[in-house]
Amino acid sequence: MPRPARAVPPWLAHALRAQRGPVPWSAVTRGALGGGPLLLAAVLAGRPTLGVVAAIGAMFAGINDRPGSRRASVGRIGGPALAGATGLVVGTYAGDHVSAVLLTLLLTGLGLVAGAVSALGPVGSSVGTQLLVGAAVGAGMPLPEPGWQRALAFLAGAGWLLLLRLALPTPGSLAGGFRFDGERNAVAGVYDAIAGLLDATGSDTATARRAALTAALDHAQDALAGPRLRRYASSSAERRLHARYAAALPLAEAATALAWAGDPVPARAAEGPRRLATAVRDSTPTGPLPAPSRTVPALRALDDALLRAAEAFDRGDGGDLHGRNRSRTAALRTVLGARGREYGMRVALCFGVSAALAQALYHTHWYGQHDHWYWLPATAVFLVKPDLGPLASRVLSRAAGTVLGALLFAGLAAVLPRPEGLVALVTVSGALIPVAARHFAAQTAVVTVLVLALVMAGGEPQASVGRIGETLLACAVVLVAGHLPMPGQRGGAAIRARLTEAAGAAQAYLDHVLGGSDDRAGRWALRREAYRTLAEARAAIALASAELPPLARHADGTDETAATLELLVDTVTAGAVHLDDTGRLDPRHVRRLTELADRLGSRGDVAVRLTPDRDRVVR
């Protein structure tokens, strides 16, 4: 009798999984034009060490060069670059003027701040990472230039790649004008996701399609709401995109209501959103839109939303993004709250211990002729970063990638001419970063080759073996520190904080709908916030569930709570559509809301209450 196959542990499955998709040729081109040419120019000018710092800035900008709009890339690349330059200045002057003990304490304090800031989201995480890596490089990479020159060189490298991002068109973007190609593709993706949800209505894939719609809406909001000099859209093309995004919100609401009902819809219902997606992507007229049947409130809402979308596409007079408007007070609460405290203390512990070990090894001359001790704490920063997967998976991928990259570089360094061979290696590695980003081990291997080539171009001898040893030591530090309980923190506090935030957003949305308000724009904004916070909670729970058992147990049961909250928000959406059509909620909506609220209350994780005046809108 054959033995049943053992399931692969989640952390190992994550380490073996790689993202798929087409090669991002535009990002590959920018990577090739980033660090390599900067290093070549610095070598020709007789200032190779400045070129090294500039190329490091371009490398980090390339890592943050993700798909999206040009406006969003300004914050995604520029904010972390400023943090990295600040870290360089602090690390350089602290490394030159304070003792090893005080330097370790300073770096530990920076780790606490950077970890807390990372709780703000992906950009905050990049800001914290570059702040710490910049501080480690500034203190542990001796260079002849003063700190302010290093910071300017770092900013120049990041700014050069950002300029390439803003100036170079992406393939296929010229037909509709390349300035807003990222925004245009993001909005088109929303209409495609609506069509996908309508196709899946009544099937087992409807829940996954609704999650994909949430992700598409989040991506489009971020693409359209990037930093701007003016408060409102300043061109007709941008106003048109805003109007087309806003027109998608009632369509998404109607599609969600249909998915909640669970009855299959006619195939032609999805044709309208697909034609709207094509019109957005190609900047063409919508043409005639097939109208769905109007047999139930959700289908009538879908038909009405298609008519309003056609009018919005013709007018193009702008529209509200209905996005989250987080105040500074809310951001401060996140940084100082459970998420910020938990992650901040863990980053501070890992970064501080790694910096102390690196300096101890350096001052005891374990490094021999190598004066650069930045590698160990910089490695710890990336290992403790949760954006890259479960902790055990990150450690395994980092160790494997570093060994592969260091051995590959050692072989290449033995045969390549200098400095031209090193410049070529930096150029090729920069081009490979966008492709290697599909897997942490592959990205680590490419970055290892790139950084070793840079420091050798700056005058350091070949140090592949030492870097492997330091990486393995950093892996051990983070693996141990990552599983230690933090003082004053209950296990899973960050997940509970996210669930509490999601429950608060769901409660606000529920109160608005049951209160009978006619403010549909306000309702759409609350619905977007409810789904967005739920998606963030789901992502955090999935990550925690894939950790090793000592950490994964803190996520037990939280996935069911998040699923119940999602069902509640879906039910509120379906009820809102029915309320628009009939002026009253259907009794089955109220029964389902009561059931879900009771289920949440019995679990005890979070609570959602039905407003006392709900009877005003119940038939």
Integer average pLDDT:
86
Q: Name the overall outline.
A: globular
Order of helices and strands: HHHHHHHHHHHHHHHHHHHHHHHHH
Helix content bin: over 70%
Question: Oligomerization state of this entry?
Answer: single chain
Given the structure, what is the number of helices?
25
What is the strand content? under 5%
In short, what is this structure?
The chain has 619 residues and is an all-alpha fold.
Question: Could you walk me through the main structural features you see in this protein, from its secondary elements to its overall organization?
Answer:
With 619 residues, the chain is an all-alpha fold. Helix content is 71%, strand content 0%. The chain has 25 helices and no strands. The chain has helices at residues 10-16, 25-32, 35-44, 48-63, 70-97, 100-118, 122-140, 147-167, 181-200, 206-224, 236-261, 271-282, 297-315, 328-336, 338-363, 375-383, 391-415, 420-436, 440-457, 464-481, 493-514, 520-545, 549-552, 558-582, 587-603. Helix 2 runs antiparallel to helix 18 (420-436). The longest helix is centred in the first third of the chain and has 28 residues, at 70-97. Residues 1-5 have low confidence and may be disordered.
